[in-house]
Design a protein that fits this description.
alpha/beta; fumarase; 5 helices; 27% strand
């Protein structure tokens, strides 16, 4: 692990991604998009059809999360990460269209790891099972697309010092042993 925590602000550019290494601890601030499986599937369908996306992927971060409903006085409910491998089939196409980072938990496939290297992107991991704690780092939530998907709809979240670790960097390195 790194000795220093790196503060990141969205959107990310190539220079920022190039300096990140597996094991670096980061605090993410700025706009991050929440999306899970079904939303990713729809985004990839739009890409295949050559149609516009509901938000610009350039330099963006997508958080694999389906937050619970907000309690009165809160902007969002518990917002813990979804298992990243559930999104593996969709991630390479999104990285190819400018997505620079994803946030989830657990392992990524070899195909995703190759796409991270090819398109200069990274994957962050954050604490599974800590959704209530992580939600304290989300200061706003706005519906962007696919309201009918409920918790899986795309939302624009505003992060303030959201904690994560670079699990996979653009150089093929990982914090997971033997992966």
């Amino acid at each position: 692990m790194s000795e220093k925590i790196i503060s990141l602000c969205t959107p990310l550019d190539d220079r920022v991604v190039e300096r990140l290494r597996a094991g670096d601890e980061v605090l993410v601030s700025g706009a991050v998009y929440a999306a899970r499986d079904q939303a990713h599937k729809r985004l990839c369908e739009l890409i295949e059809q050559g149609r516009p996306l509901p938000f610009d992927l350039t330099g963006a971060i997508i958080y694999f999360v389906g937050p619970t409903p907000a309690r009165p006085g809160q902007v969002i409910g518990a917002a813990g990460p979804t298992t990243s491998s559930r999104i593996d089939a969709f991630s390479p196409a999104l990285y190819a269209h400018g997505l620079r980072a994803t946030i989830g938990k657990g392992y990524r496939s070899q195909q995703v790891r190759q796409a991270l290297q090819q398109y200069k992107a990274v994957h962050f991991s954050t604490l599974g099972g800590a959704g209530a704690l992580l939600s304290k780092h989300i200061v706003s939530s706005e519906l962007v697309a696919y309201e009918e998907l409920g918790a899986e709809a795309i939302r624009r979240l505003e992060f303030r010092e959201f904690p994560a670790v670079v699990a996979y960097d653009m150089y093929g390195k990982s914090v997971y042993e033997g992966s």
